[in-house]
Amino acid sequence: MLAPDDTGPGRLLTCAGGPVFAETTVYRRRREPEAYDWCRLGFIREGTAWLLSTDGSEHVRAGHAIFTGPGVLCGIEPEDVTAMSTVYLQRDYFADLMTWHRPGAVCPWTRESACPDSSVIIRSLHPGAVNIEPWLDELVSLSHQSATTRFYRRQALVSGLLDILIEDHSGPDKHGPWAPVAAHVPGLSRRPVVLREPARQAAYLLESDPARPWSLAELARSVHLSLSQLTRVFAASYELTPITYLGLVRARRFAHLLRTTNLPITTAARQVGWNSRGHAARHFRRYFGTTPSEYRRARLAPTRIAA
């Protein structure tokens, strides 16, 4: 089930909504590199081509899978006729899938993080892998239906593709590993726990007024616990100290202001409780791995997927 030839660079993809969209395209001429704000999984189904990116050019053929992160330029130059199915995944949706791939995994392609240095990742599918072409055709078909139509079937197909690419892979990669790096992420490496009421109340206070200059003693008094009791109960519930949790709340609120307003960075920082731009930058980099200025520039890039 192959689509007509591509319609040229700069096009908006028309989809029925939802975090997954797929299309199959037959390339007969060069497509200049383009960047999207979604992640892309490309599967070469027929022919050979040169993949074009900021890293240079790489030769790809039928049986190759290509990952491109959000904001990364990538194009293709076929060596005659090349058919490729591309699965577009909304960045936060993809991050969720990869974060839960294994406990403690961290995906670098979340909305709140910078793109990895490696532009494009190329993988050879295992010769004995399941035939994924029917899955790709079904995803393409479902992409033109309502976003609520068989959502879980779409998710199952995406999970199946990732299972083939990540779990069953034994061939060489170009430009780095696919699997997320292991790191400690609070709450991912343990069983669900019932939140203790004082811990929940403390978290609510911090989230309700992050700009307030909270001290641990003041927070403990507010929930009628001693300092040591609050620290112990809060860590048991959230795997963070209250002050670290406050920093995370401020960073998320700050990121939201950077994405959704034109406030100067210093003004936005003060609104979440950071009184200097330098202080905000240090804490923001700790949680998001980039500076506030770089984060805002990346999030203001033009959107190419019509959600």
From TrEMBL:
Coiled coil start-end: none
HTH araC/xylS-type domain span: 200-298
Keywords assigned by UniProt, alphabetized: DNA-binding, Transcription, Transcription regulation
Keyword Transcription regulation: yes
Entry annotated with the keyword Disulfide bond: no
Gene3D superfamilies recorded: Homeodomain-like
InterPro entries per the UniProt record, alphabetical: AraC-bd, AraC_XylS_family_regulators, Homeodomain-like_sf, HTH-like, HTH_AraC
One term of GO molecular function: sequence-specific DNA binding
PANTHER family xrefs: HTH-TYPE TRANSCRIPTIONAL ACTIVATOR RHAS-RELATED
Name recorded for this polypeptide: AraC-type DNA-binding protein
Native source organism of the sequence: Brevibacterium sandarakinum
Upper lineage: Bacteria, Bacillati, Actinomycetota, Actinomycetes, Micrococcales
